[in-house]
Amino acid sequence: MYIRVSIINMKMQGRAREKRPYRKAARAAAETATHAAILDAAFQAFSADPFDRVTLNQIAERSGVTVQTVIRRFGSKEELFEELAQRESRRILAERDVAEGASLSAALESLLGHYERDGDTIARFVAQEHLFEPIRVIVERGRRIHREWVERHCRHLLSGLDGSARQRVLHAATVATDLSTWKLLRRDLGLESAQVAEVMTELLHGLERRS
Questions:
Q1: 24-33, 44-53, 178-187: lowest mean pLDDT where?
Q2: What is the extent of the structural domain holding 91?
Q3: Do 186 and 193 form a contact (C-beta atoms < 8 A)?
Q4: Using alpha carbons only, what angle is made at residue 61 by residues 55 and 62, rounded to the nearest 5 degrees?
Q5: What is the pTM of this model?
Q6: 143 with 171, same domain?
Q7: 19 contacts: CB under 8 Å, gap ≥ 6
Q8: Which pLDDT value is given to residue 208?
Q9: Are residues 123 and 62 in the same domain?
Q10: Contacts of 7 (CB under 8 A, 6+ apart)
Q11: Of 25-34, 62-71, 88-97, where does the model show the most confidence?
């Protein structure tokens, strides 16, 4: 009898140990899903309303959690916004990435695809940069990222130039491919996406002829 009970107990303990990793994995998956849901809700909220009108209560309601859960995970609205900005920066960099040595046209196509997906949202953030410090920080970060994009994909325009001459061409190429230029052409003038690509390409070719 004692042996039989011991065997049963050992089997039960073994099953408990087997279930533990599954429970941990399920709990971790649920935590990850909750984290992502809060960030997704924050993205929707910040995209729709000015920074000062967005509340943690609003984000909590959108994501289906309590505001205490949001605070426990992110601390404050500003910290939540910063983590959201970091996530979106990683996504945008991945979407804009092209293979090393890709043509300028391929890089421009990727860039314009990003503008089509996110341009209107980013433009709303840019309009708030002088009002809210957290937004100013991410807008400046975005400008640095775009400048690095220009330096990488417009190297042929900058080759052989230095000093003020290089800076002028770099500034001009940055303006030619900037989000504000896309907005002017696409939204204000009503051009189709393909026409925007043609205009930007023509601007860059003009710089190529000058350099």
A1: 24-33
A2: 78-210
A3: yes
A4: 95
A5: 0.81
A6: yes
A7: none
A8: 81
A9: no
A10: none
A11: 62-71
pLDDT digits (tens, 9 = 90+) for 97-135: 888 778 999 999 999 999 999 999 999 999 999 999 999
Tokens 């920074």 sit at which residue?
51
pLDDT at 177 over 70: yes
Helices (H), 98-192: 104-126, 133-153, 155-158, 163-176, 179-183
Read off the CATH number of the domain in which 150 is found: 1.10.357
On whether both 91 and 145 belong to a single domain, the answer is yes
Count of alpha carbons within 13 angstroms of residue 15, beta-carbon side: 5
**Distance, CA of 60 to CA of 37 (rounded, Å):** 9
Distance between CA atoms of 66 and 87, rounded to whole angstroms? 22
Residue 160 falls in which region: left (phi positive, over 0), alpha (psi -120 to 50) or beta: left
Assess contact for 59 and 42: CB atoms under 8 A.
Answer: yes
- Tally the domains of the chain: 2
